[in-house]
Design a protein that fits this description.
The N and C termini lie far apart (79 Å). Strand 4, helix 4 and strand 5 form a beta-alpha-beta unit. Helix content is 41%, strand content 22%. It is α+β, with helices and mostly antiparallel strands. It is globular. The chain has an eight-stranded mixed beta sheet. The chain has a two-stranded antiparallel ribbon with strand order 7-8. The chain folds into two domains: 34 residues; 163 residues, Glutaredoxin, CATH 3.40.30.
Length: 213
Amino acid sequence: MTANSSFFKNNRTFIAFAVSAIIGFFLWRVYDVQIKDPIDRIMLDQPQSITPFSLIGSNNKPFTNEQLKGKWTFLFFGYTSCPDVCPTTLTEMATLSELLSHSNDLNQIQFIFISVDPDRDTPDHLKNFIAYFNESFVAATGTIEQLNTLTDQLSVQHRRLKEQGDEYLVEHSAELLLFSPESTLLARFSAPHHADKISKLFSQLIKGYTVTK
């Protein structure tokens, strides 16, 4: 008997277990990627209520929980000096707005950009910046403490990286958040964002959703 045949004979149980584990993992991945409903990937298990917060809008008026009520809200955190993720996401949000206008009442949907770089992103600057992507979009910011009141409960990360003179980058989460008309967090869309995919998932989501008065 050769060394190889002896090894396989003595380790038959281990080999069978290893093969079963590999097959099981493969079948799980097939289910997770191909069979599992894509909407389950974005939906929270339970809607998340948001405790009170207070920011300042690009119109120089208070921006609070009240601004999240009565409409479906797509919300993204970023900053105007962001070199890549923010302009890309806002462009997709603008495209998403156009796509949704074909089958939805846009008076019932709003798009909000919240800056986590209050030192540079003043309300007036935000007003001009956000209008470049869509004049109907809303923007807001606040002190770091005010921002943290909101970001902490949404598990949104943000921090200023090492400065080089007056220049610096801000590291931040890149998820697009969806709130219900009752101002509860319902879903998280992970980057990279694609307007066509988000539009289809949103249309699917609202079909089975009942807005409570």
